[in-house]
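Tokens in:
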């Protein structure tokens, strides 16, 4: 179906940069690609499936629609979109996640979905105004050059179509924002020139980016919603999954180990994960994370 042609907030954002771009050797390749190929985000995504399905069910996707799922990972939202009958293209910068997504699609018996590598800052292989909906949940927010990202999402969306973003919120007291905030204290100072992905969680920045891409301000709306991390194991085990497989957390622990502070980081995160767990069943996890849902009418 698809053809791919080849001041508090500022401080917080600078701290987050330390986690994401702390390895100088990554400058030899695309640092965003290196970050997300470093671990195995599928291990984290397994705890996000239920919320992914629930979010997709609320988007009004109809059979036959063309949907671009950008920063798709292995299909936490893309697979449910395809199950609703949409023709789905999942684009992600990480090769391992693209491969995992295509395997999941085969295992699900879905022929109306395809995953392929691509960069949200430059979707040059995608045609103008080709999609009824662009969905990016905790995906495109991590790409550099946010104004380019907004422009590209607008370009590939048909007039009257929708862009749906899910973005983590800087300084939010729930899980993901706090994981990134705590981890940042253990990493070295950031290099210059980085724009924090967390700025996508600030409404005024979102408006600036989409207005720059030609969207009227009145066509942009926001809501705060919740994603659940649900797992049939303890919060401590979920933390270990983050430590072993989530690129930003992996980087933070590598830096902390060099400074002899890995146990301090571990202890802080243990308190966070256990305190935020809402499950009342032993050795199970249900942790909420608030995000900013952005809806743009093209």
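Residues out:
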């Amino acid at each position: 179906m698809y053809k791919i042609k080849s001041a508090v907030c500022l401080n917080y954002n600078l701290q987050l940069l330390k986690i994401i771009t702390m390895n100088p050797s990554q400058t030899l390749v695309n640092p965003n690609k290196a970050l997300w190929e470093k671990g195995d985000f599928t291990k984290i995504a397994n705890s996000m499936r239920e919320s992914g399905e629930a979010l997709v069910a609320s988007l009004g996707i109809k059979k036959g629609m063309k949907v671009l799922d950008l920063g798709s990972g292995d299909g936490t939202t893309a697979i449910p979109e395809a199950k609703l009958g949409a023709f789905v293209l999942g684009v992600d910068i990480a090769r391992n996640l693209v491969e995992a997504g295509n395997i999941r699609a085969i295992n699900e018996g879905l022929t109306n979905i395809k995953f392929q590598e691509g960069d949200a800052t430059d979707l040059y292989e995608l045609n103008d105004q080709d999609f009824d909906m662009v969905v990016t949940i905790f995906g495109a927010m991590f790409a550099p050059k946010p104004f380019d990202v907004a422009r590209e999402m607008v370009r590939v969306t048909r007039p009257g179509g929708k862009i749906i973003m899910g973005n983590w919120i800087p300084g939010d007291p729930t899980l993901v924002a706090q994981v990134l905030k705590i981890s940042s204290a253990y990493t070295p100072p950031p290099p210059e020139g980085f724009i924090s992905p967390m700025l996508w969680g600030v409404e005024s920045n979102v408006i600036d980016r989409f207005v720059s891409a030609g969207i009227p301000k009145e066509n942009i709306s926001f809501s705060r919603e919740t994603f659940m991390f649900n797992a049939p194991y303890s919060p401590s085990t979920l933390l270990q999954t983050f430590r072993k497989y989530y690129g930003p957390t992996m980087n933070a622990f590598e830096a902390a180990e060099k400074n002899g502070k890995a146990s301090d980081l571990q202890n802080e995160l243990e308190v966070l994960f256990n305190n935020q767990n809402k499950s009342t069943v032993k050795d199970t996890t249900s942790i909420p994370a608030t995000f900013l849902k952005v809806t743009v009418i093209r």
